[in-house]
Structures are given as structure tokens and as C-alpha cells.
């Protein structure tokens, strides 16, 4: 029972941590917590080690590199190797339908295609050549995206909903976020690839979790394990319960149970992020706009001149035009329609 309690505690801790970060990410609480934690750590960890850690973190999260791509492929390869090596063979012996067993491989092929497209495709880089075209795509709201703003790094005028990515060192049209897992920005021109990549990754994790769970349940039923008894620490005869079964399966098939725990946790995390991404797509928002959207900008934006008595303006989403129109904008970027009109 000790293992099961520790595993459930770890799983709950991870999920609570992710939810807490999502809730606090739009407030100053998280920043204050991070600063406080950094100050405490600075008094414990030697200065030389702190510098080394800062260099590593800067390389991982503030420069373009392939570390997370390799980690992604390594984890995916290990999970599929375990699924192929043990789960697939055992399920065939138990008479599982081949269509269900092959579904994770089909999802893997689709996922790798859109993972590659997310990595290598142009997210919507703003250049002198397409600057005028992209300026016509979205309306300026004069709150979050004022007119006549210029990026002095790229020497281009900034279209509405664009942002300069410091990691990639370029301005991106309809900037969503920079994703370290694909080593690329997510913008207007590759958001559809990223959405399908995330959808198939979540589906493949959930499918393997379901297949592995059904296999373990079937194994327990076929072997009549649930009818067995055992002697507890006090010498009493006890009927096998779910906790004992899980511990027994972990000791008997440790790699399968560990893989199952990993893909279940991954399914919850990816599923939550997928729902958030679908919400943004359905409401025609980007992650950048959602993160900054609840703030009042009149007092903080030096580019908007207003009387001292003016009430602060709060950002409102002016780009949402209904569910199907919003989803159509993801899969058929608005710049493509503008290009057709200008031809």
C-alpha cells in the first residue's frame, strides 16, 4: 500500500501544481512566489552553481535548441517500445482486436507528421516584403495593439496581434507562444499544425492508457486473481481488494504499470492543455492575448495619450466572429484571404 499511496500523492501533487500555476499565472502572486523562492535559494546554493544553473536555463528556455525535441522523441520512443514489446504481444494472446491495438501506431504516424510541420514551418514571420499585407489583416484595438507601433529590432511596423519573439529574434504574425517542445514559435501560419499535433498526442496517450488498462483488467479476470485470498500482517485471511491487486500487478508487470501511470498522468495534463487551446481557438484568442487580456492598459501604455481623468481601458476581444469563423481562421489563416483579394 505504501507504493500506491506515494504514487497517488505524487500524481495529485503534480496536477495541483499545474492547476495552481494556471490560476496564478495571470496574477502577481506567481511572480512574487518565484522571486521569494529565488531569494531563498540564492542563500543556500553556492554562487558558482547558481551561475551554471542560469546558463543552463538560459540555453534551454531562451535560445533555440533541439534539447526538448530530442527529449520528446526519446520519451515517445520509450513508451511505444514498451507498448510494442509487452502490451501488444500480451493483448494478441488474449484475443484483442488488431484494429484497437494498431490505433496508437496510426496516431503516432499522424502525430509525427504534424510535429515535424510544427517544428519546421514558418509561423508567420513579418518581413519588409509582407509587412503591408499583414497590417491589413487585423483591426487595431488601440489598447493592447495600438497603431503605428514599430519593432526596432526587426525594423518593421507591427501588425495587430503580432509580437517580437526574443528566442527566435523575429516578429510573428498572430503570435501565440514560443514552444520549446517544437523549437519554434506558434503563430498564424502553423497554429493549425500545432493544434492537430497536440490533439493526436493527447489521443495517442489516452488510447495507450485505455488499452493497457483493459489488458490488466482482462488479465485479472482471466486468471481469477480477484477471487484469491491472502494473509495480512495480523495473520487474518483477507479477500484481495483493488489496492492489493494494483501492488501485485506492479510487482508482476512493473514496466507496464509504470507506463500506464505515466500515460494516464500525461493524458490528464495534455487533455487539460488541449481543452485550453481549443477554448482559445473557439474564441479567437492567442495565449499571448489571454495572458495579457485582463489588465487595464491606459495607465501602463505610454503610446496612448489620454486625459488624467480618463478611466483605464480594459482589453476586449474584438476578433471573435463566431465559432466556425474562428476555427476557420486557424485552419485558413486570414492573411491567405487578404492575399487573394490583393491579387
From TrEMBL:
According to UniProt, the reaction catalysed is:
L-cysteinyl-[protein] + hexadecanoyl-CoA = S-hexadecanoyl-L-cysteinyl-[protein] + CoA
Tell where it localizes: Cell membrane; Endoplasmic reticulum membrane; Golgi apparatus membrane
Q: Which residues form the Palmitoyltransferase DHHC domain?
A: 148-292
Q: Corresponding gene? A: ZDHHC4
Q: Which UniProt keywords apply?
A: Acyltransferase, Cell membrane, Endoplasmic reticulum, Golgi apparatus, Lipoprotein, Membrane, Palmitate, Transferase, Transmembrane, Transmembrane helix
Please tell me where this protein is predominantly located: membrane
Originating species: Panthera leo (Lion)
Top-rank lineage group of the source organism: Eukaryota
Q: What is this protein called?
A: Palmitoyltransferase
Q: What is known of its domains?
A: The DHHC domain is required for palmitoyltransferase activity.
Question: Signal sequence span per UniProt?
Answer: none
Q: Which residues cross the membrane?
A: 6-25, 56-80, 100-120, 194-222, 258-282
Molecular function via GO: protein-cysteine S-palmitoyltransferase activity
Family assignment from sequence similarity = Belongs to the DHHC palmitoyltransferase family.
Broad EC category:
transferase
Q: What is its EC number?
A: 2.3.1.225
GO BP field: cytoplasmic pattern recognition receptor signaling pathway; negative regulation of cell migration; positive regulation of cell migration; protein localization to plasma membrane; protein targeting to membrane
Provide an example Pfam family for this protein: DHHC
Q: Which GO terms describe its cellular component?
A: endoplasmic reticulum membrane; Golgi membrane; plasma membrane
